Amino acid sequence: MARLRSFQRLAAHFVDIADFLLVYIEEAHPSDGWVSSDAAYNIPKHQCLQDRLRAAQLMREGAPNCPLAVDTMDNASSAAYGAYFERLYIIQEEKVMYQGGRGPEGYKISELRSWLDQYKTRLQSPSTVVIQV
Questions:
Q1: Which of 3.40.50.960, 3.40.30.10, 3.40.50.300, 3.40.50.1700 is the CATH number of 1-124?
Q2: What pLDDT does 128 receive?
Q3: pTM for this entry
Q4: Name one GO molecular function term (predicted).
Q5: Is the four-CA dihedral 72, 42, 10, 102 of positive or negative sign?
């Protein structure tokens, strides 16, 4: 949840230049599977889409102002983006511009913030146009 709060703050800070989307994928540490010692929630392995939708509501509570999508039960989004357990991406005009490392170790909000800061600076800088006569 701490990471989710950091993500929410980042999304609020850059709302003027980017759209943010959370995608809830397969539960990394289900309560009836490989349980993490610091698990904040008791979420069993999803047996159906309804299970996944219920679990995703916890994510919505952690980032109420951010749109939320839920991966399919065949984990299509997770497979396509290598997102298991968690991962940050910037997609611009259907092209991956930034791909963070796999979480939890590779999940670095600071890298995402740096990329967005640089992008915002480029947006605010006047472009130089050279015209040959």
A1: 3.40.30.10
A2: 62
A3: 0.79
A4: thyroxine 5'-deiodinase activity
A5: negative
